[in-house]
Design goal:
The protein has about 100 residues and is mostly helical. It has three helices and no strands.
Length: about 100
């Protein structure tokens, strides 16, 4: 006579798909939100655009500064430039002049 020693359970069939779902979910989450994920790519691209803009500003300031320094070299000394630099360094102006202060 045959007797059943244990009852068959259906939970054994769900263990492997559940584990696979958890593992795929883990890697999927980190593929999007991880340090080198899809979302991080967009952040890096935005950062690159911002740094490129800053680099362009610095280059423009450098070109302007080089131009102003060129005006102060011997032989091409511009008296207006020298006067402007001296007034700025000494923080002085004449009584009949109008002084406009700009923030840099």
């Amino acid at each position: 006579m045959w007797t059943r020693q244990y009852k068959k359970r259906n939970t054994g069939r769900l263990i492997m798909p559940a584990m696979a779902t958890v593992v795929l979910g883990y890697f999927g989450f980190h593929a999007y939100h991880g340090e080198y994920g899809i979302y991080a790519k967009y952040e890096y691209e935005a950062r690159a655009v911002e740094l490129t803009r800053q680099l362009d500003e610095v280059r423009a300031r450098r070109i302007e500064t080089e131009r102003r320094v060129q005006l102060l070299h011997d032989g091409t000394l511009d008296k207006d430039m020298l006067d402007e630099q001296a007034r700025r360094a000494l923080n002085l102006s004449r009584a009949d002049e109008v002084t406009i202060i700009r923030d840099r």
